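Hi support team,

I submitted a single chain yesterday and got back a structure, but I'm not sure I'm reading the token output correctly. Could someone confirm the output below corresponds to the sequence I sent? I've pasted both exactly as they appear in my results page.

Thanks,
R.
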Amino acid sequence: MDPAFDQPVCKKKKLWELLAEKVNAKLRESEVTDVTVKAYECDLKWRNMLATYRKNGERAKRLGAAGVHWEFFKAMDEVLGKSREEVEAERRAKLSGTKVGKAIASKKFTPILPTPPATAPCPARPPQDVLQLYMELQERKMNMWAQQKALEEKKIEAINNLAQAISSLAQKDGTQTPKDGR
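Hi R., thanks for writing in. Yes, this is the structure output for that exact sequence:
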């Protein structure tokens, strides 16, 4: 199921459910009826095995293959230990006789390389400069907040003045008698 799991956009949960069904079918074929496997258990087991493989791979690099005693290491290493070049060579071998392989082989690919930076990277700043920049940034932030606060206070004052004006107009209208005599 590697090709399905390698797809960039796929529902891994569905794949794990399918895998769990296959494992359960194998267990029934083996007449093991007291064990059932769930999709999330398969996913968790795979993740744990990958972590164990990686730890043992690092151990093998440090101590050599004889330093690894995990019983599944050789089997996992046969599948996962291949270099990118080996995997690519296998993929090309599989595609060599197919229409897709021929189409790819007939094309001339020009790799898109990153453009180098126009100038050399700037030298690292001493810690004092970084601290100074940080302090300046904080000071600018404080100034912005102070300006924002002053603006909000002016808005509140304007709203209060407007409310006071409306209130005084309402009082003037309430004390005067209407012209039609009611």
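A quick pointer for reading it: The chain has two domains: 2-84, 126-176. Let us know if anything else looks off.

Best,
Support desk
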